């Protein structure tokens, strides 16, 4: 692995209620299988409880079961549902705009999704199709020879989300690559935790937020700009899970936009000093 000439700032996002105001499955799919949204989630959670089952595996099972006799669950079908998912203001333009801002200030910006939602739905969004994300880590299906979903391939829950931060940290992005467990010298880490931003909205993001926060990174809680319910972000701040919070408004000049730009400025200044430190340390050790 070759370290970038510019420092890398990895911005990691949850998806549902972070980039989109509602769960992606509840924006077309659940309705298409003739389920009431609340009933679907109630039955899914009851299924998980009754079988000591991961809640994400439960909803994926429910999605397949509920589609029988109605339509086939395929990758293209899920991507099509994803293309209709609502997004918060400014999301579509955010990723490229922030990338360009970082580049202008000497920082390489990389965007990552770490979500319990469905990878294929996220891949159907306009920004994913445009190549906004370095990597999308999300729950996914395995498809049979006819292209129909038949088994879970990945189920991403709130605790195993943290493994992907370590992959991003070391630049070992393949989920099956065991080199993520290798030891790296601090100066060889591709994206130190101090150069990570995690943006999320709820308790399911707490493990990632806490990990980033505890290691000098930047955890940001967001809340819906229309509902303006700050209950969760206040609680996360009170419990030291996040460093900042803002409305989920991704437009140029918003509070969130200003905050991320300030983090970019800090990264620029800090990494100049950090690279000077590494250079001096290596020189001293050779004497």
From TrEMBL:
Name of the protein in question: HAD family hydrolase
One Pfam family recorded for the sequence: HAD
InterPro entries cross-referenced by the UniProt entry: HAD-like_sf, HAD_sf
Keyword Transmembrane: no
UniProt keyword annotation of Cytoplasm present: no
Keywords: Hydrolase
E.C. numbers: 3.1.3.-
């Amino acid at each position: 692995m070759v370290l970038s000439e510019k420092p890398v700032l990895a911005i990691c996002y949850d998806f549902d209620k972070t980039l989109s105001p509602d769960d992606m499955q509840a924006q077309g799919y659940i309705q298409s299988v003739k389920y009431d949204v609340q009933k679907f989630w109630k039955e899914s959670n009851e299924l998980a409880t009754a079988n000591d089952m991961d809640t994400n595996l439960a909803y994926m099972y429910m999605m397949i079961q509920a589609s029988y006799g109605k339509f086939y669950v395929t990758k293209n079908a899920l991507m099509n549902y994803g293309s209709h998912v609502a997004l918060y203001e400014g999301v579509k333009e955010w990723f490229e705009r922030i990338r360009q801002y970082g580049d202008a200030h000497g920082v390489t910006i990389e965007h990552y999704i770490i979500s319990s939602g469905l990878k294929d739905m996220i891949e159907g969004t306009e920004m994913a199709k445009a190549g906004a994300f370095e990597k999308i880590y999300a729950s996914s299906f395995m498809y049979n020879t006819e292209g129909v979903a038949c088994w879970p391939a990945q189920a991403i829950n709130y605790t195993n989300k943290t493994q992907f931060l370590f992959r991003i940290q070391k630049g070992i992005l393949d989920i099956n690559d065991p080199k993520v467990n290798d030891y790296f010298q601090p100066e060889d880490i591709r994206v130190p935790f101090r150069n990570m931003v995690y943006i999320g909205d709820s308790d399911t993001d707490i493990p990632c937020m806490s990990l980033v926060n505890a290691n000098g990174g930047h955890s940001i809680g967001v809340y819906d700009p229309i509902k303006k319910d700050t209950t969760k972000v206040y609680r996360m701040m009170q419990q030291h899970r996040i460093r900042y919070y803002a409305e989920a408004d991704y437009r140029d000049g918003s509070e969130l936009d200003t905050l991320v730009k300030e983090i970019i400025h800090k990264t620029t200044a800090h990494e100049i000093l950090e690279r000077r430190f590494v250079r001096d340390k290596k020189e001293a050790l050779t004497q």
